[in-house]
From TrEMBL:
<comment type="similarity">
    <text>Belongs to the carotenoid oxygenase family.</text>
</comment>
<dbReference type="Pfam" id="PF03055">
    <property type="entry name" value="RPE65"/>
</dbReference>
<dbReference type="GO" id="GO:0046872">
    <property type="term" value="F:metal ion binding"/>
</dbReference>
<dbReference type="GO" id="GO:0010436">
    <property type="term" value="F:carotenoid dioxygenase activity"/>
</dbReference>
<feature type="binding site">
    <location>
        <position position="253"/>
    </location>
    <ligand>
        <name>Fe cation</name>
    </ligand>
</feature>
<keyword id="KW-0479">Metal-binding</keyword>
<dbReference type="GO" id="GO:0016121">
    <property type="term" value="P:carotene catabolic process"/>
</dbReference>
<feature type="binding site">
    <location>
        <position position="497"/>
    </location>
    <ligand>
        <name>Fe cation</name>
    </ligand>
</feature>
<feature type="binding site">
    <location>
        <position position="204"/>
    </location>
    <ligand>
        <name>Fe cation</name>
    </ligand>
</feature>
<protein>
    <submittedName>
        <fullName>Uncharacterized protein</fullName>
    </submittedName>
</protein>
<feature type="binding site">
    <location>
        <position position="320"/>
    </location>
    <ligand>
        <name>Fe cation</name>
    </ligand>
</feature>
<keyword id="KW-0408">Iron</keyword>
<keyword id="KW-0560">Oxidoreductase</keyword>
<dbReference type="InterPro" id="IPR004294">
    <property type="entry name" value="Carotenoid_Oase"/>
</dbReference>
Amino acid sequence: MNENYGMTRRDFAKLLGCAAVLGLVDVSGAASQILGDGEKSLFALANGTARTEGEWRLTRIEGKLPPDLNGSLFRVCPGQKETFGVRMKHLFDGDAFLSRYDFRDGKVFLKAKFLETPQRLEELQTKRMLYSEFGTAKPAPPADYKRKYAGKNQPSVNVIRWDGKLLGLSEGAHPTAIEPTGLSYQGEWDFYGTLPKDVSFTAHPKFDPVTGAGYTYGIKKGAGLALTVFRMETSGKLTNIAQLPQKDFFMVHDVTMSENYLIFVIPPVKYDLPTLMSGKATPADALRYAEREPTRILILRKDGAGAPIEIELPAAMVFHHGNAFERNGKLIFDSLLTPDGSVLQTLHSLANDKIPSSTPNNLTRFTIDLASGKLESRTQFGSNHEFPRFDARQTGKETKFLYTAGAETHGFLESSAIMRHNLQTGATKTIAAGRNRIFGEPVFVPQTGKMAEENGWILAQGYDARRHESFLEIRDAGTTDFAARVWTGNYIPLGFHGNFYAA
Ligand SMILES: [Fe+2]
């Protein structure tokens, strides 16, 4: 095809995508052209470059939209996997691409667009990659070119509503304020001057369903390296509740919380400083997994009082947690641990034709005795999961269900199923995506006016490789029964996280 028409396969895919969005072609019939492009894994196919920006009413719906589903699912992903000829190497690389599914009056609308950060606009204007990404170095710029900004802050990991704002979160820097209707860039946000310039902000703050306050943290960089913990007051400001000094670079992606405690799990991931300082390596090139060092659990009172409990485990890699709760003097929480650092290599192989699979992770329940500060037990109840979600109204309380994107056969990134774990019985229900399909994070959406965990919906974006098309799957959270599948006519990379906010 490219010989005859002077088009690359990429051009053709783009044209096909535009035509599909406009309803000019049936994407299901033409998708084999794209699948035949190589032997990429489903995970790589699902995390390519976003296809089309715009706003649409989505009408190709299998099943029936729940009539009480009213509100918006905001998602964000790294949406550009090639910048002016440079292929992104790391799953975390690429400009933030936002999507918003709006449900109202039994209809569903989609708005999707890149976030026009000043750095993205500068690159578009100059038609060159001017800023290195987490795992991809920029080419040498022309000698006379002086770029305008220190670096890129990619809010492509998570997106939350807070204090009337939509905040895109990168975890490496401050949040980015985004206008929630038009999804336009507003600027970095420091919570009315209460987030210091040298402190980053996690992509996973947690919110207390009783008080409405949030709990968040960042890394104080430079001298006085510390895990810095804040309460997000309902006024919109942050209150610093703890400053926990750390000896060495540390990575902590998520936090979980019970009624009285915040729990951090810190894996032994370090930077090799000579590599990092060489000027020839990206941060991802310099990451090292110190397999002889412990993974540390830090348990801090939410009021910041006293010294945190610290427990050491054999080295394990950790990203995400489930819920946490207290019962009879014990603190119980669920977490996903991988027994080695292989996932770091997997994440950094996105540009490879063959992505190395990583060691399966384990969904693990920890029980800590609060009086002695000792680990009482750890039990494992499943492998190959990611993106754990639960009914956020039950944050800090014992929950019956945990939902994950799970892989039945391959590495956990090939999430071929949504899984619902009954944490009381140990039973797991598996909702298989089906052949050539993959699911992203399953977001729990409560049914209006109903408080039980059984009364909700699970919304998970999926990707169908045969159609080369994204869809949104809606399931009854109580029964896991199919409710609806909304086809987007578009390709939105699967990415990481999102959240639903009722209208
Ligand atoms: Fe995450």
